[in-house]
Design goal:
143 residues, alpha/beta, Rossmann fold, 5-stranded parallel beta sheet, globular
């Protein structure tokens, strides 16, 4: 199983981004080559909606209804396994924030990493590998 960082979902859905086609091809190879599932959590879906509707980031952001529809498609896809925050996730998240002396801009990534780790997911696809290298636990896939 492979976890997808929000950056990957955004690049898959915002056509104007320069890596759109490359990311789409890389994910297709990952899924088809191994038949593995994609791990997604509610917080990734929420962050995706927040980012893709931001007119300050994109020339053509998605409208809210379109963003919600695309988020639902991802959430309901047959290749997706849902992973959820638990008490164990929260403890690990807090431990990693302290251990690695991370600040406020690292909260969401650290919470996602803890969610993946506790769900047994050891591979993560991201466009921001340095955000996750600090944990020293994941195989980072950069498309």
């Amino acid at each position: 199983m492979i976890g997808l960082d929000t950056t990957i979902l955004v690049q898959l859905e915002i056509v104007e981004l320069p890596n759109h086609t490359r990311i789409r091809q890389a994910l297709r190879r990952e899924i088809q080559a191994s038949g593995q599932e994609i791990a997604l959590a509610p917080q990734i879906i929420a962050e995706f909606i927040h980012v893709v509707t931001d007119g300050g980031r994109f020339e053509r952001p998605l409208g809210m209804q379109e963003a919600l529809a695309r988020a639902a498609q991802w959430w309901d896809a047959s290749e997706v396994r849902h992973v959820y925050p638990t008490q164990e996730v929260t403890r690990l998240f807090l431990e990693w924030m302290i251990q690695h002396q991370l600040g406020r801009k690292r909260i969401l990534d650290t919470f996602w990493a803890a969610t993946l780790w506790c769900a047994g997911v050891r591979r993560l696809m991201t466009s921001n590998p340095r955000d996750f290298h600090v944990f020293g636990r994941f195989e980072i896939v950069v498309p």
